[in-house]
TrEMBL record:
Similarity field: Belongs to the universal stress protein A family.
Record lineage: Bacteria, Bacillati, Actinomycetota, Actinomycetes, Propionibacteriales
Occurrences of domain UspA (ranges): 9-144, 154-292
PANTHER family registered for this protein in UniProt: STRESS RESPONSE PROTEIN NHAX (PTHR46268), UNIVERSAL STRESS PROTEIN UP12 (PTHR46268:SF6)
Pfam families: Usp (PF00582)
InterPro entries reported for this sequence: Rossmann-like_a/b/a_fold, Universal_stress_UspA, UspA
Protein name, UniProt field: Universal stress protein
Top-level taxon in the UniProt lineage: Bacteria
Length: 293
């Protein structure tokens, strides 16, 4: 599969759907804000199992022809949305998720469209988005609708003190800065009373660790130096008890972007491995950026 993406561009996958068009418009604006070029990509998928080589080649030619048409229309739409953004395009055969992961090796960001929420998004995550989110070498942004392009509100980032959240916070500071948005740093933990067998257990644990102080320390360490690097970003810190997915989804209702890392911390969070980012992608009401460490 020939995959050549200009280094440092915003890459967006298109397939001719409304979700793909929404991702395209979001990517155009992101490229303009970042001062980057845009690469529009499309993978045809596989021609299928055929015994006759001529049939395979004919099918691939047909798929490539459709793909070029889809990408050509997307390029025209991108240039109409913002003529200042330089646009490149790639059409290739093969698996879309493999193509996007390969593109992420040189991209600054990969942008995908998602159809709806809940079970519909879960199906999409299983086929394209999940492998890309899991394996991409750069941040992956999932966009739902054209309305996401001009959403108002702060950038929200989830923090747990791990290398994954450190990378997510730095991405969120940058995103807030280029968009002229405030930043909300949200740290959510499960209520310990739901995870201990008795009041004695809770008291014993509380004697060992001052939770509030520890949480503030984790957030402070994660944000170290970023306030000085991005002095234009107004920051609000939020501490919440409960399911991190629920807390981030609630925050997404008034946000322009939610940023999450892909890995958790400690016993409870280690059992989630990936489920927080996946849950937020499935249920959030604004675009979600997933950032690997």
């Amino acid at each position: 599969m020939d995959m050549s993406v200009v280094h440092g561009t915003v890459v967006v996958g298109v397939d001719g759907s409304e979700a793909g068009s929404a991702a395209l418009l979001w990517a155009v604006r992101a490229a303009a804000l970042e001062g980057r070029g845009l690469t529009v990509v499309h993978a045809t998928g596989f021609a299928g199992a055929m015994d006759d080589l001529e049939d395979v080649l004919a099918s691939e030619r047909g798929l490539l022809s459709v793909g070029r048409s889809i990408v050509g229309e997307a390029v025209r739409e991108a240039r109409a949305a913002d003529w200042t953004v330089g646009v490149e395009s790639v059409v290739t055969t093969g698996d879309p998720s493999t193509m996007l992961v390969e593109a992420s090796e040189t991209a600054a960001m990969v942008v995908l469209g998602a159809r709806g929420r809940g079970a519909v998004v879960s199906a999409l995550l299983g086929s394209v988005s999940a492998p890309v989110i899991r394996e991409a070498a750069c941040p992956v942004v999932v966009v739902r609708s054209a309305a996401d392009v001009l959403r108002d509100g702060p950038v929200v980032v989830g923090v747990d003190g791990t290398p994954a959240s450190t990378a997510a916070v730095e991405h969120a500071f940058h995103a807030a800065s280029v968009r002229g948005r405030p930043l909300t740093v949200l740290h959510a933990t499960w209520d310990l009373r739901e995870h201990v067998s008795s009041v004695v257990d809770l008291r014993t644990y509380a004697q060992k660790v001052n939770l509030s102080e520890e949480e503030e320390r984790l957030v402070a360490e994660t944000m170290a130096g970023l306030g000085e690097k991005y002095p234009d970003v107004a920051v609000t810190e939020m501490y919440r008890r409960g399911d991190p997915v629920h807390q981030l989804v609630e925050a997404s209702r008034a946000a322009s972007l939610v940023v999450v890392g892909t890995r958790g911390r400690r016993l409870v969070r280690s059992r989630l491995l990936g489920s927080v980012s996946r849950g937020v992608v499935e249920r959030a009401e604004c675009p979600v950026a997933v950032v690997r460490p």
